[in-house]
Amino acid sequence: MKLVLASTSVYRKLLLERLQLAFETARPDTDETPLPGEPPAATAERLAVAKARAVASDFPDALIIGSDQVAHLGDEVFGKPGTEERAIAQLQRMRGRTVVFHTALAVLNTRTGSIRCEGVPTLVRFRDLDDDEIRRYVAKERPLDCAGSAKSEGLGIALLEALSGDDPTALIGLPLIALSRMLRAEGLQLP
Fold this sequence. Notes:
Elements: E1 2-5, H1 10-17, E2 24-25, H2 40-54, E3 62-73, E4 76-78, H3 84-94, E5 98-109, E6 115-126, H4 131-141, E7 160-165, H5 176-185
Parallel strand pairs: 1-2, 1-3
Antiparallel strand pairs: 3-4, 3-5, 5-6, 6-7
């Protein structure tokens, strides 16, 4: 069976390469708008499944990996900022606080139609950052394409006080521990 990553994220691609499995990537056409009243964790899980399903018709005999991440502080959601101004505003809102980064993972077997889905939360405590630190960080790393405006795999680690979670790769966008478990359950040999 083919292995397909339903994502064009360079971060997810680099993470999946760690498993040393051959895979393809495909761009899922998915509306990422949360549903009214939908909790952030449920949004991430629904979107991970939707991304896998969005490319399924192109891969009739494959394991398709979908993933999504929602950063939230209570009911307040921090998406991909897109602009420096929004990235700065997000980091100002999160400074000195603990934010949940809920990373959802789905594996769809298009041969059988079965789907596995799991959410992996990571608690991220931000330092009490001053405005100059935030502006310098955003200018240097330009984290405009990641939920919560901080790249823990890069300079963003300097913004943090602590991390807590079961899988360090979940925060980067693809929880490899859960993914390895799911792929083994589908018959792939790892390592």
